[in-house]
Amino acid sequence: MNPAWSERSIEDQSLFNPVFCALLLRTACRGYQEGDGAARALPLAHCFLILPIVLNAAMRSALPTLRTRMTTWITSHPEHIGDFADRSRELVYATREAIQLGCAQEWLAIAGDGVRPGPHRFRPDPPRLATDTVDIRDCYEAARFVGRWLPKNDRQSTILSMLGVTT
Amino acid sequence: MSLRILEIGVYGYNGELSSVRLNPSGLSIITGASKTGKSSLIDIIEYCFGREQCHVSDGIIRQHVSWFGILLDRGDGRVFIARRNPKPPKTRNPDVYYAVGADLRMPEAVAWEPNLGVEDIETLLTSSVGIAENQTTVPEGQTRKPISANIRHALMFCIQDQDEIDSRKILFHRQGEPYLPQTIKDVLPYFLGAIDEDLLRHKVQLDVERKELRKLQKAADERKQLADLSTARTEDIFREAQSVGLLPPGQPPTQDVALSSLRAINPLIQEVPVPADSTEPIAVLRRERSALRRELTAVKERLRQIRSVEDVAGSFAREADEQRGRLATLGLIAKGDVETCALCGSGDVHVPSVAEMNETLSGIDEQLSQVRREVPRLQEAQSELVVRQNGIEDSLKRNQGQMDALAKQDEAFRTERDGQLRLARIMGRIAYFLETLPPPPIALVSVDEVEAARKRVAALEKLVDPENTAERLTSILNLIGEFMTRDSEKLDLEHSGSRLRLDIRQLAVIADTLDGPVPLFRMGSGENWVGYHVLAHLALHRWFRQKHRPVPAFLFFDQPSQAHYPAEQDRDGDISVLPDADREAVFKLFKLMFDVAEELSPHFQLIVTDHADLRDQWFADAVVARWRGDGLVPERWIDARR
């Protein structure tokens, strides 16, 4: 269970705040639907991979281009996968919280066993604020990339197992 | 983790699957006629395990198959690997599909997209079979590069194809290929466990410790050098310093003390003592100058402090900016607080309220505004200090001008200037002397410390010593020889009862008889060759399993009965047509394989393909496929494409 807001450190409150995380998830879901006529939902299990990848500066800056398959990239970058399982465990509640908040704001919608962008409209999407820093824009970009990059036809357990997250 | 094969299959161009399911542990026999695809199973295994080229021979299989697939059990879950059949005459294809799952089954039809590179199979299987990072040791004087053992190498101890199992010259799979005998010799010690799993780490540690030892020794040497420097030279300089009043008069102290006194000389504070009553105006000016210089130093220090404070405040502001930036997304909330869970509808949710979050945002805003207010104040203080600094410098210039003017008038001042020049020259000599001294050791190094470092290096050197490995290897090979000798009593072989051993230098089985050692290639007849191959590999796997070595837990024999029951004699697998001795030998061979496989269950899997089909119950129970008529590729696939 996530600690109450007042018990979190100021860094946790601001850097992993559910509003920002929800926007990242929405961006990833939109990325997942890109170039796909069926516009499918981002599988729930994969939802939990977005924040650990995007919010980690080292991993974010090491992301390749879409030409590199995710499976291949994972096998050739053990240094980023080593502690991935631990990091993703730490962010499970942040993800869950972000999904809850995102759904309440209609930024996200639960559909079947996955998550889709909700009916709310942003212009532009993801929204831009005057206070956005370079880091924030990088996070949105990485979230969209990871969404597009996640393999769509593989078994979810294959990706989870390769990332060291137990099946 | 033990890797075993659950199912091997082929997918036709019609998308259908034809496969053979193996017993997850114990013996699995695939019996059948020639040309039904029994031997191709080995090539399919190797191809799916990441071998670059597809060695499945051109023929029915290559013509009618679109994908090869294999389902593995790796202990903590299942792995499915499929590779596309390269269209003959091509021998390689980059398409690979890889899936992992706890309850994974062989897919009924091809419904996947390639998702992996060929070389990644090797990486994935190498780690899933539990092969640690390792490196073979190359003896001094030899030029080959060290290699690290991987799944490809492990497979050489898991397979015996029909040309290998009865060979007098070849004991291991692919031993006949160029360079591979040396590779087998290099990697076998690792797989047997003779090489320390931590060898690589120890090697790295040894490098670090050696570097540390060199550093300690260098420091100790420097100290000695310093002590050896002629004390006379230090004394000379010390006396010179005394002569101009930089140091108090008296007998020069010991070298260490003398050096530190020399280093401590501060040119600013040292002023040549001048009789107070001789030239009063110059003395006043000089006092003024000293005061000005001290003040200047203080102002500069203050400026430096303020600038560093400014740096810290700046980075805090950046960090706070990032935090505020991320929290600012709060403004986008339109629909109030979350009161029910989006996933389960429960009211028991703990998503923080907007009000709470906004409080954090305004907290950060406040901090930021404070930082902003702080910075201009620092700047103001800075500019004030800079003005002061300029003022002092101007005063100094004026002071110098006045002194120069006085000097022109005052004869006595000229003496003072001479004194200043002499002082400057001696200061220069002292500085040069100190600079050319070897740098003082960073830390005092005691003899004990050097000795302790030397001991650590020696201990590590012993750990990575190849002789250690050799000793352990000999002892392991002795134990494996023991297994072979024991099992050999169950077969009627030429040297049964003699002590058997595995010779890793010759890659051969050797029987120590009363008349001397007899290597496998000097023994006669195919039945001996097959027998000793089976004994050697069963003994090796007995060791691998007992010691949980990272070799896949399966062993594949292709046609072990061929010496007694060759393909051309095949009568639907019935061996009753054979002479008694041959029938007996085939029975014993299979019974031995069955017994060992049972004994090592559930962590071991023995797969045998053969023509022979014994009537005994235990044999029939182990048969997982009988290919008479239909083989790996069903007749109807072939008919459909005619």
From TrEMBL, chain B:
Keywords on record: Coiled coil
Q: Which InterPro entries does UniProt cross-reference here?
A: DUF3732 (IPR022205), P-loop_NTPase (IPR027417)
Note the superkingdom of the native organism.
Answer: Bacteria
Residues that span the membrane, as ranges? none
Q: Which residues form a coiled coil?
A: 199-226, 282-309
Kindly provide the name given to this protein in its UniProt entry.
DUF3732 domain-containing protein
UniProt source species: Sphingomonas hengshuiensis
Q: Does the keyword DNA damage apply?
A: no
The reply to whether Ion transport figures as a keyword in the UniProt entry is no
